[in-house]
Amino acid sequence: MEVSTIRVAKENNIAYIQIQGKGSFHNAPPVKTFCQEMLREAITHFVVDLKGCTYMDSTFLGTLAGLAIQLKQKGGTLYLINAGSHNLEIMKNLGLHRLPAIAMRPLSSKPRQLKELPDQSLEQRSTAEHMLEAHETLLQIDPANVAKFKDVVAYLKEDLSQSAEKR
Q1: pLDDT at 1
Q2: Can you give the CATH number for the domain in which 83 is found?
Q3: What is the rounded distance in angstroms from the CA atom of residue 36 to the CA atom of residue 139?
């Protein structure tokens, strides 16, 4: 199994996120937590470096799309750098290129020190809630995603409903 690492930094009012390996539902929650912390600190420019990213699943992409939507409301930008053709194709297939707060351009400077983002062990319900939110974001940004993810969304809603009934 490929080991994935997320490194982050805040420097000069810019938040940096570097993905090594896969961006997936496993590491999307800590990325979201970091982004929420940065937004609370009024950081509105985020750089996501995908140079070492070998793959992104729909939950991870939905998390990035949700961040882009929040940044648009605050007048900010999500810069995706070093995406490579494979990741660009995945993002385009899900409509992320349509989000006005996302920019693809080279970065003139990089942070001096990135720290590894620790894993967040979420209970199954929290993971399902995060996955549902990410997929609902994807449904919002591109009508073509409805056909791709309606079954996933229905399954997650049913799963969450059943787990709520068991409580």
Answers
A1: 58
A2: 3.30.750.24
A3: 22
